[in-house]
Amino acid sequence: MDSDWFHRFAPAPGGGPRLFCFPHAGGAAVAHRALSLRLAPDADVLVAQYPGRHSRRAEPSLDDIGRLVDALASAVAPLCDRPFAFFGHSMGALVAYELTRELERRGMSGPRHLFLSGRAAPAPHGNGFDRLTTDEEIIARIRLLGGTVDGILDNTELMEIVMPPLRADYRALRSYAWRPGPPLDTPMTVLVGDSDPVVPVASAAAWRELTTAGAALHTLPGGHFYLDERTEEVAGIVRATLGSLAVSGRTADAV
After folding, report:
1. Are 21 and 36 in contact (CB under 8 A)?
2. Domains, the chain, ranges and CATH?
3. What pLDDT score does 251 carry?
4. N or C, which end of the chain is more exposed by having fewer CB within 10 Å?
5. pTM for the whole thing?
């Protein structure tokens, strides 16, 4: 299935859990293609395609986390017909967390599990690494973080395509203000690179304070985009948890 909001990179299995993936700032659905393929056919993986990039390039990007989450909540609603989980990397982790809270506010069933990758837990004082206001600051940050976008920073034509969604996403991050509330009752798996220049392991571990259901922490070799090199290892962690969701989902359906 391809839709405006979600892309599927592998055939959908007949059963099993569903995993929604949310990319990093400036990222498109293709960022999670490798993970999707490694999880097939054990899970139905749907990757978010934010407006303003790739197949949605003609649409204006959403530069507000709240508006993005509100739109995603409506897009997710008809797809919650089986046990599901969220996986978000970097900005996508924040989107996954706030989307879980939004579904709860709407009285909807939320994800059975949250996989939060490459992102510090939100806090009242905000995240200083998000306060980028100029193209020069954004480009310097992308060089620091590395990843696939880093390879096109010196290509003027490609940068004209890449910069609009990057600007919008960093505006969204800069304006985001965490609103304290009751902790989630959703279990979490937190993943972080051991040499991530903007996400100290302790800041990632702080996600544990935002759930009453426990949070497992996995520190993997690599920087902010450790996932590019450790996709198979991450897929194994995700697969093991999704397998337990599939079992619990069948048990619940049988009762």
Report:
1. yes
2. 6-254 (3.40.50.1820)
3. 34
4. C
5. 0.93
